Amino acid sequence: MTDPVLQADGLTKRYGRRVALADCTVDVPPGRVVGLVGPNGAGKTTLLQLTVGMLTPTAGRITVLGGRPGDGPGQLAKVGFVAQDAPTYAGLSIADHLRFGARTNPRWDQALADERIAQLGLDPAQKAGRLSGGQRAQLALTMAAAKRPELLILDEPVASLDPIARREFLRGLMAHAAEHGSSVILSSHLVSDLERVCDYLIVLTASRVRVAGDIEELMGSHYRLTGARRNAADLPAGAEMIEHSFTERQSTFIVRSVVPIEDTSLTVEQLTLEDVVLAYLSRSIEAHRPELEISR
Amino acid sequence: MIWFTWRQFRTPAAVAAVALAVLAAVLLVSANTITDLYAGVAACQGDCGNAIEAFLTRFDNSAGGTIYYVTLAIMYAAPPLIGIFWGAPLVAREIEAGTHRLAWNQSITRSRWLATKLGLVGAATAATTGLLSWAVTAWASRVDSAAADRITPLVFGARGIVPVGYALFAFTLGVTVGMLIRRTVPAMAGTLAVYTATVAAMPLWLRTHLAPARHETPPLDMDNLDALMIDRSRNMVIEPNDVTNAWTITNRPITPSGQVFTGPSDPARCSPDAPHGSCADWVGTLGLRQDVVYHPDSQYWTLQLAETAVFVALAAALAIVSFWWLRRRLS
């Protein structure tokens, strides 16, 4: 359990000329609930599929729990995966799915599976094709959880769920992670889904990792500074500008700084997690704008 | 994984079992009719030509004649149907529904996942077509021996062990095409197209090379002609009858110097006004020979084994491609 959960170094995935993930370097410690956030098409699914071994990298290295993703039954047993849209076999019953899991996973926990299905009030004889989206997601999570993996990965698990089913699903997921001490990585395009449950965040936009780190650290090192209009060069020492907006007379900065900001000419405010993420997202868009104009 | 593959496959397997059972019942009932009709041939001594002729005529006019052609159609339809309905969806439907992402994240490698599927459904394919072909071949054995045509292309592909080879090829073709196209219905169409082209190429161009054909040049027998035709510019077409109990590849008249004989005809002997038979008598004086290439019935099992081996080898090659593709390219 001391191996880092996910270690990527220069990880890149290309489809022909299209880059799905570029030069991704992250190092996620064990025991975390990791949120992977970014707009649709940012490369979240690509990163997660590389992590479970559904895809192989074009360049760079990736290590998951000390092993190569998808490399043999041992590695597969350590990682549980709920794919996007929680695919299940429409023609097979819930019991068939659980039996499939029981027969293909060495550490399968049938009691856990039965208990979860009972808690959800589902009939094991019911066909998966007749379940609602939320129930199907729960079945897929049950299969992944009963595998008793060290790392549980979920790709947009709540995207198709209504708010109540969302909360139920995430609550069940967190209860499982806490009880069994497994690490979790889940992706979403909504920060609000993640901020309640995650303690580690990776922001991915336009196929690049913009920021990755402990959420408490992120919250403690980002500030909104407001004051009389000024240039970015005049910011306090040690403050890295993430976003700058201004009116006639006033400048607003979002900055990252490991040391506290002690500049009396500026109003210093704490940010919400959503503000931090949005700042990084808009920065990546700004960074792309000039390139677009040149290419015209 | 074996249990799960069976769970997914049990409905198609049940459909195939019911179809086989229905066919077996029909064949069992009608087999008695054949035995009754065959009594004349079984009892005959010496020259049985007339008895065989009578048997075949009465068989054709009985219900057995219809069943004969229906089983012929079934024998040719079964392998492509297996390729389309068992092979093509095997992987394509999983990819289409995304369920491969569920299956590949259990603690078994995707190679084992595919190996189990190919092994179990492939075994069912061989068993189904093997039983089917055995039943039909046994049922039709008296008709085939009376008609002496089991080596001719139409009957050859519907008897013995080649249907098993066809079916294994169709199945692995369906799996591989499904993996490449990733969509069930286009994969079904692609499977049918490639299968039909490959199987049709066998009698047309390839099968004759699987065993050395006999080549003979006997004198042209004017009493054994299928057709003798003359057109207005006196060109002649002479077609000798096919070699009995054999698959005739080429059969044409040649002159003593080895050229194919095409006329011209003698206007005095071959005009419409000439007496009946005078033209044939005249051709008989030309010293023509027959250039005939054929596979005798004695090569039947050599050809059956060789053709089955060709299709089993194709199936094995496709299976290797599908494993390679699964490991390298599919996600």
Quick recap of the structure?
The complex is a heterodimer of chains A (296) and B (331). By secondary structure, chain A is of the alpha/beta class. Chain A is built from nine helices and 13 strands.
Notable features of this structure?
heterodimer, A: 296 residues, alpha/beta, Rossmann fold, Alpha-Beta Plaits, 2 domains, six-stranded mixed β-sheet, four-stranded antiparallel β-sheet, 9 helices, elongated, disordered C terminus, B: mainly alpha, three-stranded antiparallel β-sheet, two-stranded antiparallel sheet, 12 helices, 5 strands
Can you walk me through this structure?
The complex is a heterodimer of chains A (296) and B (331). In chain A, strand 8 and strand 9 form a beta hairpin. Chain A has a six-stranded mixed β-sheet, sandwiched between helices. In chain A, strands 11-12-10-13 form a four-stranded antiparallel β-sheet. Chain A has two domains: 200 residues, Rossmann fold (3-Layer(aba) Sandwich), CATH 3.40.50.300; 79 residues, Alpha-Beta Plaits (2-Layer Sandwich). Helices cover 35% and strands 28% of the residues of chain A. Chain A contains nine helices and 13 strands. Chain A is elongated and about 65 Å long. With 331 residues, chain B is mainly α. Chain B folds into two domains: 241 residues, no CATH class; 68 residues, no CATH class. Chain B contains twelve helices and five strands. In chain B, the strands form two sheets. A three-stranded antiparallel β-sheet of chain B has the order 1-5-4, with no helix packed on it. Chain B has a two-stranded antiparallel ribbon with strand order 2-3. Chain B is elongated, with a radius of gyration of 26 Å. Chains A and B meet through helix 2, strand 5, helix 3 and helix 5 of A and helix 1 and helix 4 of B.
